Structure prediction request, 588 residues.
Amino acid sequence: MSVDLATVKRVARLARIAVTEEDANRMVGELNGILGFVEQLGEVDVAGVEPMTSVTPMDMRKRTDNVTDGDKADDIVANAPSTDYNFFLVPKVVE
Amino acid sequence: MTELTSLTIAEAREKLKAKELTSVELTKAYLDAIEAANGVLNAYVAVTPEKALDMAKASDERRAAGQVGALEGIPLGIKDLFATRDVHTQACSHILDGFKPKYESTVSQNLWDDGAVMLGKLNMDEFAMGSSNETSHYGAVINPWKAEGSNQQLVPGGSSGGSAAAVAAHLCAGATATDTGGSIRQPAAFTGTVGIKPTYGRCSRWGIVAFASSLDQAGPIARDVRDAAIMLKSMASVDAKDTTSVDLPVPDYEAALGQSLKGMKIGIPREYRVDGMPDEIEKLWQQGIAWLKDAGAEIVDITLPHTKYALPAYYIVAPAEASSNLARYDGVRYGLRVDGKDIVDMYEKTRAAGFGTEVKRRIMIGTYVLSAGYYDAYYLQAQKVRTLIKRDFELVFDAGVDAILTPATPSSAFGVADEDLASDPVKMYLNDIFTVTVNMAGLPGIAVPAGLDHKGLPLGLQLIGKPFEEETLFRTAHVIEQAAGRFTPAKWW
Prediction:
């Protein structure tokens, strides 16, 4: 499988990365290079093989449903580019 | 008296204990060394002298009061991927501009709890994506090693290039690092240092900026095997904040050093003999085999048939997980924001300006292989292949093999801004051909220096072990180190 310019632009849109025409053109070649490299996986016989979901067999450790953290709104917004009263500020999303 | 910065962790520990040295003296020596070298080597992206001296002073006071931790007073460098409270933490990316977390990663906290001192944050490839440390927003790190008779600047490898260069150039006693596909072991091999990626789950990932969560694991880069053992003992822990961290006791790794290899079975996988591999690497490998045989180990040929598929599978799984993990950088909660005409425009502009070329490339690949219609063909197939890669190792270990010996990298360190590598991303990816299988299978792997090539540059061997049998790796790597000696670059900076 290979990607064309339109696909690269669609994927960039999905990934929320603005690309110029020049970027997109360059990426077509690069992504096709990588996709060409991974293509060889198709030759592996995987009949009856389970996809890996956890690299070490383990039961998910569970904890009791208690509040163990919180009450640190100042810390949470401390690094935000724009805040007001412990809210993150973003451009208007609802008219 | 020898230069204080030339002391290993174990040597400094003895001198501190004997009151021949204080942590403040040792820390000052390192801060001076950093000051003199960092303009050239670019290993640190942030130096924290005040914090370092405060921590050193507190350590000396604790020692005077009889409280001595396992790393009491030892000055360390921390890879920029680890969150350090109120200190520069940017994964060497522009998109995390100004980020100073209000929390501390579990691994670094473990080190401070054991008495260690922080010198600063170390350079790395942006979001740990790279094999040369050239994708860093803060510029390339220069390898303290140079080829004989050459003035060409070489890369230290990556992504933990700052960690490896700082350790090799004696700009810290030891460093934290992380390894997703080879990011501890490849730079260790390129700089003549020791690096271990422990079993997945041995160290907590909490507070480490996520790249590919099913592959990421922290480990140390150190000057010798003993120092790596000392550091991993402190770094490893079970952690309620990371459910993939394992609740197993952390052994005293140092105690494994010096134990006999008699009765041990070392596997030599034929698939690691790749086309175009320099004769020197083959020779190094044979030398390693001979050393282990002399030490009493039994050498057996083994096969890991799916080896060649590990790297292509990795370049699906890792970008897929990265595209998801890096979705959080959107200009809202931290770091860079580039304003736009609406919120989506802001996201797109922020991410376009904040991520570098390699990071964008991987996010794009990841987004593509996870997108509707391609998930089964790419991601699901890769996860099935991953099961087969892991099974290869399981079969070998079930047949009685205790550890596997391979080369660490297909070459020694290459030049900064290598045009051949820059023009083809896949060529750069091939650096990880011997290391990436270990991450795919979640196993521990150690890179230990074993010799110099004809240019006088260090080369490393890799040992791969069974899950949670890091002690076997330390024991075996120690034998190689004893035979090969240690390698230190001649100071030119």
